[in-house]
Amino acid sequence: MRAFDISRIGAGLAFVTAASEISTVLDESHALVVSAAPGSGKTTLVPPLVANRVSGRVIVTQPRRVAARSAARRLAFLDGSGLGERVGFTVRGERHVGAATRIEMVTPGILLRRLLADPELDGVDAVILDEVHERALDTDLLIGLLGEVRELREDLVLVAMSATLDADRFATLLGGDSPAPVVSHAAVAYPLEERWAPARADRLDQRGVTPAFLHHVATTAVAEHTRALSRDPSADVLVFAPGALEVSVIAREAAALAPETEVLQLHAQVSASEQDRAVAGRAAGDRPRIIVATSIAESSLTVPGVTVVVDTCLSRVPRRDAARGMTGLVTVPTSRAAAVQRAGRAARLGPGTVIRCVDERTYAAAPAFPTPEVLTSDLTEACLLLACWGSPGGRGLRMPDALPADAVRDAQRTLESLGAVTADGRATDRGERLARVPADPRLARALFDGADLVGAQTAAEIIALIAGEIRVDDADLSATLRALRDGRHPRTREWQRETRRFRGLVEVAPGANASSTSLDIAVGTVVALAYPERIARRVGDADGGAVFQLALGTRAGVTGALASAPWLAVAEVGRAQGRAAAGTGAVIRSAAAIDEEIALVAGATLLTDRIEASFVDGRVVVRRDKRLGDIVLSSTPMKARADDDTRAAVLRVLERDGLAALTWSDAAVSFRGRLALLHRELGSPWPDVSDAALAATARGWLAPEITALASGASASRVDVLPALRRLLPWPEAGRLDELVPERIGVPSGSSVRLVYPAPDDPAGQPVASVKLQEMFGLTQTPRVVDGRVPVLFHLLSPAGRPLAVTADLASFWAGPYAQVRAEMRGRYPKHPWPEDPHTHIATAYTKRRLAGG
User: Fold this and answer.
1) In this structure, are residues 90 and 137 in contact, taking their beta carbons and an 8 Å threshold?
2) Is the Cα torsion angle 248, 254, 260, 262 positive or negative in sign?
3) Which CATH architecture describes the domain 192-374?
């Protein structure tokens, strides 16, 4: 077995100076962390170094398909072998690997599913995780899973590589009992000129990135390219934009401004051949180039010839909106760490320039590092993979960050509704089948169930459309699918390849492959099966469009042909403002028209028929609602009665809307404030009386009142105070008045009422409002809750107007009182203003006041 020629492969690569250190470390350890700058050659050199020390295959993960293809082609060329012989790659829909392949580049998702099929990775002796600093969700999952694999296979070599790496943290994760060795390589630092070119227009508005800003970026790129070419005819420019749409706009404008320049686009939605052309570099005789790219070019691949980087300082990242039940891509400021990597692309082989299209203040305000995807993404697919692995929710895995509990709960509910996991998070047989489909489990479910309804081929075509990165014009999925079928769409070839892949996963009975269902109905059916919670009904008109109510509870706007449909099956909905959102804060980005029959069939698990209640003018109004999620299909008024269904309805409305609909007397408010202060200062057994806690436990402490309300009693006649008293713990209740008295005495003989802070006030104090003259002679501030909390005094003038606020009477008498006395004794000459308030007795003043003196 021929070894890789490191001297040949590493010629000209900065990282070659670290080759001997890598070899030495691998002699002693099977885990390694490598940190080196982008473009230094680590992706090219480390895999053959590792391959020369093991006998089996070396798997190298790249976060993106274009990076995996590019890295494999580059290494195969340097090795002098054909692609797919000693070096190959596997990405979604494309594979170039043979029996003799030693190094295989893959995307993280490919390796995750291989692990599920073969947890011991038979035939694989090393795994290299590249670009782990990007904190992609799949890479984070691989770190956890491969850590367990190494416990079974101590011979497995595991390497993590990055450009900007928290080396110690990943060394601990990879090393097991002791941290893995770290090899850091400092590349030659070529001079990098940093310039600022902020636009006069805003970068973002309610609709996203503004056209004016994109025009500014395009003109800046062309001007900087012209300047660079005057110094170096081989100079190319790399422009970073947040997403594919912005890339296309900037590229179109740049091409119009500089027709003699070749303008290329580099993002996931262009074809593989276009991607490869952008990263291949400029050959002799080629026109100068401007490459407009997404973050795909930040660190995972190298674009040769670039000496100038123009950066929008914007990124598009996944964000989960738990409140709206939506997950999508949002545009955010690029982190400073990512911006540094982008800039480094200009100074990889010599001096370079970066022009940031923001001012220095805006750049400094950007986050220091990107947010890990695991903290912001929908975790449904990840949780299914973990359930199949045997670690529900990631329990027991050593991952860079634990999966957020609320996102795991949402994923668990979704997977249970699909029949993919049990109540304790374990994968079912159906879940194992869904996990084999390289797509969101909801799409896998729609593929299998949809094949029986619309035919396997049509179901595969629809899933290939909504699972991919194909732009949907005017939100209409059916129209886009027709364009793909007719070959009029630029992504037709890729879509056909994906369709064949999904079709191969579906087993159907003979004769069940065809369907007479119309295309529109078929698309809507499959989308509704995938996302029943996004089934939507039209509820109103909007300027140029319509407003739809989604089953998940939110409303969203839509424009175009779909606006007239009575029902929609929504594939993608995202946060938005402006005309398209119709004031809802959300817009439907892709959908298909359906009818009510399809909505009811696809959303069967969301159908409910139950009694609902609401408060109207202080009384409970009861109705029988038939719903599809939050979509009300019918509502029939009913008479209030104290049966179990009505009581449950009243309880739900109190839990949902809180207890504000009930009558809160001053005594009830005061009593609740006293309990809240005790809970805050002493904790258990004094009860939590916050809004959330009271609503969550209303079934117990408020049971008689709920029955009364369900029977038709007015809320104004239901006193909350007796119900609150049921919360008192015994025998501690006997100390209630001692710990938190309703009133306190002052030197004048008066009894002053204490107003206790609201339950949600984390530092509030009880307040006593009293005339200053009644306090003469009191030097120490009274305290409640066994002396823990001082009373806050609002000291008033003889006319009852505010004079001072203090929780420290001794300090007040010694200082601020003198100024108050000087200002007030001329205004109120008949009232005492002694120089020494400590010895003056307030009683005489009080007697005279009571007598009208």
Assistant:
1) no
2) negative
3) 3-Layer(aba) Sandwich (3.40)
Number of Cβ within 10 Å of residue 642's Cβ equals 15
Contact 497/272 with Cβ under 8 angstroms?
no
- 66-112 confidence digits (pLDDT tens): 889 989 998 999 999 999 999 999 998 789 999 999 999 999 999 99
Crossing angle of the two packed helices 42-51 and 19-28, in degrees rounded to 10: 40
Q: 47: how many CB neighbours lie within 10 A of its CB?
A: 28
CB atoms within 10 A of CB 401: 12
C-alpha 69/C-alpha 499 separation (Å) is 21
For the cut 90, the answer to whether the pLDDT of residue 10 exceeds it is: no
State how far the Cα of 399 lies from the Cα of 418, in Å rounded to an integer: 27
Q: What sign has the CA pseudo-torsion 691, 697, 702, 706?
A: positive
* pLDDT digits 0-9 by tens, 422-445: 998 999 999 999 999 988 999 999
- Evaluate if residue 583 carries a pLDDT over 80: no
Rounded to whole angstroms, the Cα distance separating 418 from 412 reads 10
| Domain regions of the chain by residue span | 6-185, 192-374, 437-602, 606-740, 741-850
| Euclidean distance between CA atoms 553 and 324, whole angstroms | 7
Q: Is 333 helix (H, G, I), strand (E, B) or coil?
A: strand
Which residues neighbour 71 within 8 Å (Cβ) at sequence distance 6 or greater?
A: 43, 44, 60, 62, 89, 105, 301
Return d(Cα 483, Cα 494) in angstroms, integer: 13
The CATH number corresponding to 6-185 among 2.60.40.420, 3.40.50.300, 3.40.50.2000, 3.30.70.1450 equals 3.40.50.300
Alpha carbon distance 685, 682 (integer Å): 8
